[in-house]
Design brief:
Blueprint (H helix, E strand, L loop, with lengths): L1 E10 L5 E10 L7 H56 L8 H12 L4 H11 L10 E9 L3 E9 L2 H14 L3 E2 L6 E10 L6 H11 L3 E4 L5 E6 L4 H11 L3 E11 L12 H15 L4 E6 L3
Antiparallel strand pairs: 1-2, 3-4, 3-5, 4-10, 6-8, 6-9, 7-8
Helix pairs in contact: 1-2, 1-3
Length: 296
């Protein structure tokens, strides 16, 4: 029996494509004629080279698409942060909106184009880049693994956006249905410290400022604070002053109620993957501003 080599495509856990050599046994009779044997080897090698080149090109294409998706997601995050800064501080003028000014500088440094920054500021004001008013749309849906979701959008065509999202949810096996009763509306503030935070001291200041909840990061230098929506800006200013903290992003969010949270560790891999895929597809819609869910 003769051993022959084959190249098989394998998707790694990082989503990239690599070639893995494998060997299989063949019971085909061996050829003893030197000329015929060389012709067969040359022919088989040519086919293997073509297949291998095709797989290498496919791997390169997947890698390029992955990088494009990462860049697109980063741009979306910067754009949404700028929009929230305009909404919360009630102004698109960076000279009078310190948070907007900071975010714009950071976004430029990260490579966000000027036209996308201007578009994000316009959307924060509720208009398109051409000045036409945008409509706000909230879609509530149940996704795979019974995960409840709230999707917030800004669009110049409410009907089209609603139809697009309904189709994505339906194709994933979910359904559009009320879910907001499983969430609370909250202001969310991110703050940072140059030194490790003392939990008791921070908690006293957070409670005194009137916040609803707080969470100190694992590094002990980052702080997340949840507030009533109308008090977000004032509490952010108060805590940054009293605790000598640097203000990060502030936004109005939906927070899943503790008794509604779904532990994804007990959900099978197929449904976890289905959930991940549909959330990625929804996030890719240019009208989508934020996605909230109760999966943990």
């Amino acid at each position: 029996m003769a051993a022959t080599a084959r190249w098989l495509p394998t998707i790694t856990k990082f989503g990239t494509l690599r070639l893995v050599g494998s060997r299989s046994l063949s019971i085909a009779p061996q050829l003893f004629s030197g000329h015929n044997r060389w012709s067969k080897i040359k022919h088989d090698k040519g086919k293997e080279d073509v297949s291998r080149n095709a797989l290498v090109e496919l791997a390169s294409t997947y890698a390029e698409r992955f990088q494009q998706a990462v860049r697109s997601k980063e741009r979306s995050q910067w754009s949404r942060g700028i929009q929230e800064a305009v909404k919360i501080e009630n102004g698109g003028d960076p000279t009078s909106n310190s948070e907007l000014s900071t975010l714009m500088a950071q976004a430029k440094k990260a490579g966000l184009p000027k036209d996308l920054i201007e578009r994000a500021i316009a959307r924060g004001k509720g208009v398109s880049s051409s000045g036409d008013p945008l409509q706000t749309l909230t879609v509530e849906a149940m996704l795979p693994a019974s995960v409840s979701t709230i999707i917030e959008c800004q669009t110049d065509n409410k009907k089209r956006t609603l139809e697009d999202l309904r189709l994505l949810v339906k194709e994933a096996g979910g359904m559009v249905t009320p879910t907001s009763h499983l969430f609370d509306r909250r202001g969310h503030i991110n703050l940072a410290s140059k030194h490790e935070l003392e939990e008791e001291k921070v908690m006293d200041q957070v409670l005194e400022a009137g916040a609803v909840d707080m969470d100190i990061g694992e590094d002990k230098k980052s702080l997340s604070v949840y507030t009533e929506p109308s008090e977000t800006a004032s509490i952010a200013q108060s805590l940054s002053s009293s605790l000598n903290l640097t203000r990060g992003s502030s936004e109005i969010v939906w927070v899943a109620r503790p008794d509604s949270v779904i532990n994804m560790e007990v959900v099978d891999e197929e449904r976890r993957q289905a959930l991940h895929e549909v959330l990625s597809q929804i996030e890719g819609d240019s009208s989508v501003q934020a996605i909230y869910h109760n999966a943990a």
